[in-house]
């Protein structure tokens, strides 16, 4: 038995579309959003022109800015129109009023605690099982989270990102078909995929991988983005976790002056194949080569991934 049903979540979304004009207007605007499509490394990616996402893409996430703003994920500071659906005792499911997906949720913990995945992968897998129409995602505190001081997941309806849609190519590096870690092949960037038919086995493999990911100086969590979803294969649930190790938060084009500036903060959704540009100037000029350059800059290269792989196998 899950903690909520997909039907309860659908009910929450319909009520918020009717009762909360900010959400209703932004979801209506999303339906007419402009999209460009490119091929990167043989895979189709989308670029979405989404002005409402400026609040997230340009979010100031330094300690000083965070300490001076009221946390928008704490229950006391949320808009009065925003309704919450409890997921057990620890989390609350909310409709995200600045959507990328036709159905987009934010799932904060009930406590104001820093964004960390350690000790929470079981929660993420549990959410993926309950919200089986969604992909659950986690942005590390320096990998796209706009509230790095308040732990949260997000969820987007399946079918927008090119991951997990369609066949995913992988090379098994640890475990077996029932529970294994794979290198993701033929993708836009370097990543691992964990697949398991038991939730605990998926969590265990994630913890093994997490333990060997490099941690940058002065930080206490490896930089990463995670996508997590379940699939029903002939009546058997399969848990999937896409693990995208990161070397950098924002690419150099984010800080560049003049025409070379592109305001894009890569996060889990971008790793899944959907790139968000909140400004028209960037949407109009961005090319496949810009996306390739951004991914090259913020993700691990093949050699660094091989090193991680060798540590997992030992
Ligand atoms: Zn908070």
Q: Classify the beta-strand content into a percent band.
A: 25-35%
Order of helices and strands: HHEEHHEEEHEEEEEHEEHHEHHH
Number of domains: 1
The strand line-up of the biggest sheet is: 3-4-5-7-6-11-12-10-9-8
Rg, rounded, reads 19 Å
Global geometry? globular
Short précis:
This protein has 314 residues and is an alpha+beta fold. The protein has helices at 6-19, 21-30, 54-57, 63-68, 121-130, 199-212, 252-255, 268-271, 280-285, 288-298, 302-313, and strands spanning 34-40, 43-49, 85-87, 91-95, 104-108, 134-139, 152-157, 170-175, 179-184, 192-196, 224-233, 236-245, 274-277.
Task: Please describe what this structure looks like.
The chain has 314 residues and is an alpha+beta fold. It has a single domain, classed as ATP adenylyltransferase (HIT family, subunit A), CATH 3.30.428. Helix content is 30%, strand content 25%. A 10-stranded antiparallel β-sheet has the order 3-4-5-7-6-11-12-10-9-8. Strands 1-2-13 form a 3-stranded mixed β-sheet. A hairpin with a 7-residue loop joins β9 (179-184) and β10 (192-196). α1 (6-19) packs across α2 and α5 (121-130) packs antiparallel against α6. The longest helix is centred in the N-terminal third of the chain and has 14 residues, at 6-19. The protein is globular. The two termini are 37 Å apart. The mean pLDDT is 94. The structure holds zinc ion (ZN). The site of zinc ion (ZN) has 5 residues, from loops.
């Amino acid at each position: 038995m899950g903690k909520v049903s997909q039907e309860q979540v659908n009910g929450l979304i319909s009520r918020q579309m009717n009762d909360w004009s900010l959400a209703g207007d932004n979801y209506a605007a999303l339906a007419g959003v402009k999209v460009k499509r490119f091929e990167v490394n043989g895979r189709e990616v989308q670029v979405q022109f989404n002005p409402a996402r400026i609040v997230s893409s340009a979010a100031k996430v330094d300690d000083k800015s965070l300490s001076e703003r009221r946390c928008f994920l704490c229950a006391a500071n949320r808009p009065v129109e925003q309704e919450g659906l409890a997921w057990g005792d620890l989390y609350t499911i909310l409709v995200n009023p600045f959507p990328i997906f036709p159905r987009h949720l934010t799932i904060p913990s009930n406590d104001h605690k820093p964004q960390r995945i350690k000790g929470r992968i079981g929660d993420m897998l549990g959410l993926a099982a309950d919200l089986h129409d969604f992909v659950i995602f986690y942005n590390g505190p320096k990998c796209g989270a706009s509230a790095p001081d308040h732990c949260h997941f997000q969820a987007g309806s399946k079918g927008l990102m090119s991951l997990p849609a369609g066949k995913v190519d992988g090379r098994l590096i640890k475990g077996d078909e029932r529970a294994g870690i794979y290198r993701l092949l033929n993708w836009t960037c370097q990543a691992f995929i964990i697949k398991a038919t038991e939730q605990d086995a998926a969590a265990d493999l994630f913890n093994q991988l997490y333990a060997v990911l490099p941690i940058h100086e002065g930080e206490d969590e490896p930089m990463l983005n995670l996508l997590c979803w379940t699939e029903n294969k002939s009546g058997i649930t399969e848990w999937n976790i896409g693990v995208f190790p990161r070397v950098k938060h924002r690419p150099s084009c984010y800080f560049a002056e003049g025409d070379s500036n592109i305001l894009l903060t890569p996060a889990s959704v971008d790793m899944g194949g959907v790139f968000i540009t909140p400004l028209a100037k960037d949407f109009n000029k961005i090319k496949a080569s810009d996306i390739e350059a951004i991914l090259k800059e913020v993700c691990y290269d093949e050699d660094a991934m091989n090193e991680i792989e060798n540590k997992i196998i030992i």
